[in-house]
Design brief:
With 122 residues, the protein is of the alpha+beta class. It is built from four helices and four strands. 44% of the residues lie in helices and 22% in strands. A four-stranded antiparallel beta sheet has the order 2-3-1-4, covered by helices on one side. The two termini are 18 Å apart.
Length: 122
């Protein structure tokens, strides 16, 4: 299973509520793009505003959590990448990237492909 992961931090001038609204607009747009591929699954996650998070961060010396995480799964990555290289998909991706750079702190965010290994499934 191939997974594309976006771990994003909002721009400092955006409050969390505004970020979430604009992130949802981005999610709506990116769903239209990934549906052009043989996508298996797509999820979006937000860190909980919970005191336990602060305790864990403090105990482990970690940075603040990401504002959002997007994960997109494919059984095989090559066909998806080929489809995303076609003109119509490239145009749609360009638009979504434009939406994204307006709301995220690119230097403090991370985008990467991973090979998922399921260790426990229930």
């Amino acid at each position: 299973m191939i997974k594309f992961i976006q771990c994003v931090r909002r721009k400092p001038d955006l409050d969390p509520a505004e970020f979430r609204g604009r992130w949802q607009d981005y999610l709506d747009a990116i769903q239209r793009v990934v549906k052009l591929t043989e996508v298996v699954r797509m999820t979006s996650s937000y860190a909980l505003a919970h005191e336990t998070n602060a305790l864990v961060q403090s105990a482990r010396g970690t940075d603040d959590p990401f504002d959002a995480v997007l994960e997109v799964w494919w059984q095989v990555g090559a066909p998806a990448m080929q489809r995303l290289a076609e003109d119509d998909a490239k145009e749609m991706l360009q638009k979504t990237r434009g939406m994204l750079v307006e709301i995220i702190d690119v230097k403090r965010s991370s985008f990467f492909l991973s090979d998922e290994e399921v260790l426990i499934e229930g």
